[in-house]
User: Fold this.
Amino acid sequence: MNCIRLELKNSRGLTLIGHLYEADSRRLVIMCHGFTSDKSSRGRFDRFAAIFQTLGWNVLAFDFSGSGESDDDTLTMAKEKDDLQSVIKYAKQRGFQSIVLYGHSLGSRICLMCYSKEVSTMILTGASTGPHTYNWNDHFTAEQMRELQETGVITEHLSSGTRKQIIIDQQMLLDFEQGDQKELLSAVDCPVLIIHGNADEEERMLLETSKRGMKWLPQGSKLEVIDGASHSFMEHLDEVEKLAVEWLCKQLDE
Assistant:
């Protein structure tokens, strides 16, 4: 498996670190991880990247700024949008002609926000296709919520990976709840594969939002539900892989 470490800059001058899995083609899948995750995505992206590479796709999995090995920053959706736009710009400069965006969870929202004519299709798992309201007290400790109130950020300590902590801006928590789903999805002009589970509360909430939004996505888009899969899909990666591979192969045929 040919994989090289990449360093590239976003528009704010910060360094983003990525892994490029090289194939003998000009097709590229860009993989966008979820909230407080990294380019490995708990091993999911490593696995899928290797599979896509065998199908003749180059794959670039990268850390958003403030995540993984990329430069320190506080997390907001606007910053992650800028990061992905910078990666797409890099891909175009490298001569890649067919660009696919693969996003998991928050990464899927960023993919949708970054649609441009160079993007031929998207694959979104555990997708965030519109605004959602979370009870952040269920996700963060009382101490973290006090920190948020006093400083405007939350420090999330990580138990694995290269990064020891992530700094979440208050704006990021607001970002989850804001936005217009019709406006977001209507701006996308490529077929989109959305894969959901139904086994936990968050995933069921996300699924219902995606169901409401399908009417605004282009013809050829598809919503797949993996019965019994949770938001992480960790116990159902074979099924995710099968759906993603079939979708990519279909795009090659068209």
